[in-house]
Amino acid sequence: MRVFWLKCGLLLLNFLTLIYVLSARTSSLTSGNWLRLCGIRIRNFYCDTSLLAHSLHPEFPKSLAFTTSVYTREPFYKDEGKEFNPKRDKIERYLHYNARDAAVTFEVFDEMMKDACEMKVPGFPKWKDEFVLGHQMALHNFYYDLEDVGFRVNHQRQFELEKLYQDKIQVSQDEA
């Protein structure tokens, strides 16, 4: 009986890890916070589609809604999750939305990786492996931790710099 429960636990952990890896988004890392609350730490993280989108197209939005419209033929569905009302709707509706979200995220990831493989960046012959996967994806945990903890801000220095740059902007505009 103990082996059965160990296998069930391992299966559940693998499932949760897979879903998190498929749907990891820097813009909404809080989706993974419930895993931390349960004591589950993702150790086999591979790719954040938001960071990948930023690496490929820094000028475009990084949201899943936008990348879905660019990389798939999936009609817009992101409001389905926002419109879910647990008092009125069956939980299956929300689970269907989550499953769709994970499947679409994987499709977006797959298409973006094709673009990353095809992209030629001067000076970076192994751009995808060294920069995107080696450097950018390593930042995911940093951003995740930063969102949890935050960082100290020196408000006095912030005010001084704000004044300094406002003055520089004013001088620049007066010269023009």
What does this structure look like?
- There is one protein chain.
- This protein has 176 residues and is mainly alpha-helical.
- It has a single domain (2-175), classed as Nucleotidyltransferase, domain 5.
- 67% of the residues lie in helices and 0% in strands.
- The chain contains nine helices and no strands.
- It has helices at 2-23, 33-37, 49-56, 64-71, 79-83, 91-118, 127-136, 139-149, 155-175.
- The longest helix is centred in the middle third of the chain and has 28 residues, at 91-118.
- 14% of the residues are buried.
- The model is unreliable at 19-30 (pLDDT under 50).
Offer a quick outline of the entry:
With 176 residues, the chain is an all-alpha fold. It has a single domain, classed as Nucleotidyltransferase, domain 5 (2-Layer Sandwich), CATH 3.30.420. Helices cover 67% and strands 0% of the residues.
Biggest beta sheet summary: none
The end-to-end span amounts to 79 Å
Q: What is the CATH topology assignment? A: Nucleotidyltransferase, domain 5
Number of strands: 0
Q: Roughly how many Å is the radius of gyration? A: 21 Å
From the spread of the alpha carbons, the general shape counts as extended
| Number of helical regions | 9
Which H/E pattern describes the elements? Answer: HHHHHHHHH
Please mark out the parts with pLDDT under 50 across 5 or more consecutive residues, or reply none.
19-30
Task: Provide the CATH architecture.
Answer: 2-Layer Sandwich
- What is the typical, i.e. mean, pLDDT? 81
Helix content: 55-70%
How many structurally independent domains? 1
Provide the β-strand percentage band.
under 5%
Oligomeric state of the chains in view: single chain
What is the highest CATH level, the class? Alpha Beta
Structural class: mainly alpha
